Amino acid sequence: MRARTLLPVMAAVALLALVPVLAPPFYANLLVPFFGYGIALLGFNLLFGYAGLLSFGHAMFLGLGAYGAAVIAGVLGIKHFEVVLAGVALGALLVALPIGLLCVRYTGIFFGMLTLAFGMLAHSILFKFYHLTGGDSGMRVPRMRILGLEFADYNKIELLAGPFYYYCLALLLLAGLLMWRIVHSPFGLHLRAQRDNAQKAGYLGVTVGRFRLTAFVISAVYGAVGGAILGFRVGLADPELVHWTHSGHLVFMTVLGGFGSFLGPIAGALTLTLLQDQLQSLTQYWRFVLGAILAAMVIFFPRGLAGMAGDLAGRLRPAKREAPA
Amino acid sequence: MTSLIETRGVSKHFGPFCALENVSIAIGSGEIVAVVGPNGAGKTTLVNVLTGLLTPTSGQVFFKGHDIAGVGPVALAKRGMARTFQLVQIFPGLTVAETIAVAVVSQQGRQWRLLSQLSGNADVDARVREVAAIFGLERRLQTAASMLSQGEKKLLDVASAFALAPEMILLDEPTSGVSTAEKHGLMKTLLDAAEAADVKAIILVEHDMDLVATYAQRIVALSEGKVLADLPPGPFFADPTIIETVVGKRRSR
After folding, report:
1. Of A131, A150, A207, A278, which has the fewest Cβ atoms less than 10 A away?
2. Are residues A203 and B157 in contact, defined by beta-carbon separation less than 8 angstroms?
3. Searching chain B, which residue's CA lies closest to the CA of residue A180?
4. Does A186 contact B124 at a Cβ distance shorter than 8 Å?
């Protein structure tokens, strides 16, 4: 990893690690969903930014993670978060394979609409099969052991703001490192090649369909892991997690942060999590303000926060270089 | 001489329209064959049949003895055939080095290594530099493909096809969009590169009769989907009826 990327990342990790120590538990608790979204968006951006496929149904995989946690820990009673993570990752793999096989034959708006349709289908199944899924009241996600430890002395808020916070930070780092390797691998190169020009890529030996499907499945697994974190935090798997507006929320965060960059979507998730909290305490019209911000970003900074940061760094750098010359 | 690629009685119909009718040609190792013909003669259809993109309505296509009808571009790339397009095809978001590396990764079979890192991979890197040097792109390796000049984009397009180390390459109007003065320079670069890369046969689809006369060892002329002539340049240009059909129409435009 280059120093240009590594230094800001290390600074951000150090800052995040200090939050539970320096800030009231409220803030650490607020940031737990950010970790969930951060992991989900790493996957989402493999599909969107690197493979060029914009899904409007990606929330179904976050829902799969949360409902999977409810089933494994609640129904089956296996209250170990690691088992839940492995289980939902496997579940996402099995669900994403057939859906992906159908969807990746299409690109652009057709891919978007097809994923939207599958997302709505998933929502209606969760909503209507009341006896299985609890319908609109959802399914309870019980408290689980993490790394085999009970943390019996901690109440839920203390658990979330302490051990679980660090656990999620570590998961985000691990997921980020893994994704960094994936996008910089030969696989990542072929993925970007088919995004830019599928016909030319085919003649250079890129098996376009298989690459898209693999990206779809990996992004689903990341989504489910993120969803499991969201479910653990709220203690509930709710059908609203799967609603298409939640898929829109993922797109919002990605565009806000900048889908052209590796770290952009994570920056978007962090910004939106903090912004939403602040706006909600200020005004009941917070959705209106968020909408205005997104519109302004798309018009004035289409490359998102990451693009803004890049431009800023670019302006500062030449000044430094010119000084000694 | 055993043929590298061969069509036997290939016909291709699009509904009632017959684009190719009973086309039988064979191209052997060491040959540079030009495919010529007026617009609508079936050149593009023939190219698409030869590159496995279209399945012929009847007849067979063999590449190195294997039936390749409709197998698709990826399978052909693996078997040793590369092509370039009339309109320049690049990956706008990739650098020159990355564009060439796409083909190198395919050729070396590394594309499913999800966790190995591309940067610093000596095998890929060496091959990328080698190919870039043949096409004079070695100083542009880190430039985004979208920032290259039109001529450089053309070279990059062809360079990436050569990076597959193909046995046969199909060049679809390689000099289109290039100024008359630069055409021969580009053709020489391509042929030198083909020799350096040990390419065994070249199919050249070309409108420019000057280039065809200079570089082709054999000329296949198509007219209305049929093979009008399959001759070396000498007899080809000596036959006024063929020239009338192939070139005359272009002059009268």
Report:
1. A131
2. no
3. B115
4. yes
Which H or E element spans position A172?
Answer: helix A163-183
Helix ranges (H only) for A58-162 are: 59-69, 81-103, 108-128, 130-133, 156-161
- The dihedral over CA atoms of B1, B3, B6, B8, expressed in degrees to the nearest 10, equals 40
CA torsion through residues A106, A110, A114, A115, sign: positive
**Confidence at residue A240, expressed as pLDDT on a 0 to 100 scale:** 93
User: Which neighbouring-strand residues pair with B25?
Assistant: B7
Rounded to 5 degrees, φ, ψ at B219 are: -125, 125
Judged by DSSP in three states, A79 sits in: coil
Between positions 168 and 187 of B, the ones with CB within 8 A of A are: none
Indicate which of B81, B106, B108, B121 best probes the interface with A, i.e. most A CBs within 10 Å of its own CB.
B106
CA distance A304 to chain B (A): 17
> Alpha-carbon Rg of chain B, whole angstroms?
19
Q: Do A201 and B91 touch (CB under 8 A)?
A: yes
The C-alpha atoms of residue B106 and residue B110 are separated, in whole angstroms, by 6
Instruction: Please list every residue in chain A whose beta carbon sits closer than 8 Å to the beta carbon of residue B172.
Output: none
* pLDDT digit string, tens, across residues A256-292: 999 889 999 999 999 999 999 999 899 888 889 988 9
As a whole number of angstroms, the distance between CA B121 and CA B118 comes to 5
How far is CA A229 from its chain centroid?
A: 11
Taking contacts as CB-CB distances below 8 angstroms, the residues of chain A near B160 are 200, 204
Nearest to A143 by CA among A130, A125, A156: A156
Give chain A's mean pLDDT. Answer: 92
A303 touching B, CB under 8 A?
no
Spatial contact of B29 and B4, defined as CB atoms under 8 Å apart: yes
- At B189 the pLDDT is 87
Res A174: pLDDT: 97
């976050």: which residue's tokens?
Answer: A62
The pLDDT confidence band at residue A63, using thresholds 50, 70 and 90, is very high
- Assign 3-state DSSP to chain A and report helix, strand, coil percentages, each to 5: 80, 0, 20
Which two structure tokens, joined as six digits, stand for B90?
């690049």
Q: Give residue-wise pLDDT tens across range B194-252.
A: 888 889 999 999 888 888 999 999 999 998 889 988 999 889 888 888 888 887 644 44
Q: For residues A68 and A227, give the distance between their C-alpha atoms in angstroms, rounded to a whole number.
A: 9
Q: What pLDDT, on a 0 to 100 scale, did the predictor assign at position A135?
A: 87
User: Which of A184, A186, A196 is closest, CB to CB, to B105?
Assistant: A186
Name the residue with tokens 């450089």: B152
Give, for A303, the enclosing helix (H) or strand (E): none
Query: Under DSSP, is residue A106 helix (H, G, I), strand (E, B) or coil?
Result: coil
Q: Is the dihedral of CA B222, B228, B231, B234 positive or negative?
A: negative
In terms of DSSP H, where are the helices of chain B?
43-50, 73-79, 96-108, 122-134, 150-162, 180-196, 209-215, 233-238, 240-243, 249-251
Q: For A305-325, write each residue's pLDDT tens digit.
A: 988 888 888 887 765 444 443
Question: Which token pair is A91?
Answer: 């579940």
The residues pairing with B83 across neighbouring beta strands, listed in sequence order, are B170
**Mean confidence (pLDDT) of chain B:** 88
